[in-house]
User: Which sequence fits this backbone?
């Protein structure tokens, strides 16, 4: 079975060339890092090391400025007949359009903002549940974040829906695609799957999974939260019916973002207050939107446009479209992070007692994003995270809501795993610093040598 890990047509080479290959940003990393005020933080005589990106990234100055400007000048509710409301509405409209560009959607009417991915998915699952009958089947996976599992499990009790599970290949934490094929059938109505694992970084062959689901007449609901900071997303190429992500994972404010095919958003009955529109995003966007956060998201897109134009494809004809600049940015990010991922795999592999889960073969680097989860013999994940924290290295521990995966690996009762992640603003020397810190922790558990006094 073919695995199609390419998410856009952009190549994933290492350096960039005159043929239009995207460039990395490593050669001018300081100029990029200077865009992020948080990166100026110090821990003693060293920069603070933000390896907690899988839980939320830092934001560029444009985001902070845009949020402040909104609150200073345009803070108003929706559809008022006065200047500040009109300005606020213009910002919201522009953000819908920019988000559609970021995802490759047909238009702004396919983009919905909400509190976060989890809240949006619960809302979407309730609406989709209205169209399901007892005995209809929904497929979920053991690789996903629970936000793309629990909302569908709720339909089992509420609607009599049957849940079908897809497991993993434990040796590399990839989906069991043969298992997926076995559970698909005439009663399958929806397949919920992640684009990239938030725990171990696996990129799933989502386009192929979408084709499998559509072949039996099922919809697909794709969690792209963990993929969005790392790869260019094209919802039309993926052909997913729904796709959801979280801007705070890709250099934006705390916010949720849902894409749905226009005809499906029109077809489904949303949960809403009666005066709300019966069509368009307003049909789904319950209550007053967080205008300052949405304004901040426009700052994120402005930053990514700048990144794409500064570090985009060498030799390619420049285009003025926002979509082209955003794709160029994400391709440059992918090139940069590829080198970080290879360096992390090599360095983590040298630590005694460290067991790394997921895809560990550098030859398969394009099948993952630079997120790494591991255990260290003799230490609980919490203890490792605490020791790293003492050295100014931010790392996560636990299950990070990858509830089924951690238990499938037999780690649910032992504290899960330590998780570190790299994004394009991280420095190669942070890998070395992490490796040294882990080596010190590992060696602190070893008994003293007979030659030591």
Assistant:
């Amino acid at each position: 079975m073919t695995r199609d890990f390419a998410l856009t047509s952009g190549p994933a080479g290492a350096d960039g060339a005159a043929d239009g290959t995207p460039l990395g940003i490593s050669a001018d990393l300081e100029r990029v890092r200077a865009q992020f005020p948080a990166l100026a933080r110090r821990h003693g005589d060293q920069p603070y090391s933000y390896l907690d990106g899988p839980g939320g990234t830092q934001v560029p100055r444009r985001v902070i400025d845009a949020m402040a400007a909104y609150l200073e000048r345009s803070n108003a509710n929706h559809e008022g007949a006065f200047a500040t409301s009109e300005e606020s509405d213009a910002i919201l409209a522009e953000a819908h359009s920019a988000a559609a560009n970021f995802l490759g959607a047909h238009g702004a009417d396919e983009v919905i903002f909400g509190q976060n991915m989890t809240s949006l998915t619960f809302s979407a699952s309730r609406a989709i549940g209205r169209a399901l009958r007892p005995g209809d089947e929904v497929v979920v996976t053991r690789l996903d974040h629970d936000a793309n599992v629990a909302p569908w499990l709720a339909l089992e009790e509420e609607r009599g829906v049957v849940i079908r599970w897809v497991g993993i290949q434990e040796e590399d934490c990839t989906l069991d695609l043969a298992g997926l094929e076995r559970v698909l059938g005439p009663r399958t109505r929806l397949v919920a799957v992640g684009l990239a694992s938030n725990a171990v970084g696996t990129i799933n062959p989502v386009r192929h999974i979408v084709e499998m689901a559509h072949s039996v007449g099922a919809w697909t609901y794709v969690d792209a939260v963990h993929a969005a900071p790392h790869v260019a997303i094209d919802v039309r190429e993926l052909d997913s019916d729904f796709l959801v992500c979280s801007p705070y994972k890709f250099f934006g404010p705390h916010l949720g973002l849902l894409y749905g095919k226009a005809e499906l958003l029109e077809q489904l009955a949303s949960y809403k207050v009666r005066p709300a529109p019966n069509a368009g995003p307003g049909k789904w966007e319950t209550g007053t939107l967080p205008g300052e956060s949405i304004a901040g998201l426009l700052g994120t897109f402005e930053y990514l446009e700048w990144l794409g134009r500064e570090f985009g494809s060498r030799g390619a004809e420049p285009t003025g479209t926002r979509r082209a600049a955003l794709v160029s940015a994400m391709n440059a990010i992918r090139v940069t992070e590829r080198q970080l991922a290879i360096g992390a795999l090599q360095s983590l592999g040298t630590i005694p007692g460290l067991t790394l889960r997921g895809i560990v073969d550098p030859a398969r680097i394009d099948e993952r994003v630079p997120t790494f989860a591991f255990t260290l013999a003799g230490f609980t994940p919490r203890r490792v995270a605490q020791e790293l924290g003492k050295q100014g290295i931010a790392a996560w521990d636990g299950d990070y809501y990858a509830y089924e995966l951690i238990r499938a690996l037999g780690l649910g009762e032992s504290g899960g795993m330590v998780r570190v992640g790299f994004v394009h603003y991280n420095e190669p020397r942070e890998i070395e610093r992490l490796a040294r810190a882990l080596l010190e922790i590992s060696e602190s558990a070893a008994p003293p040598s007979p030659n030591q006094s």
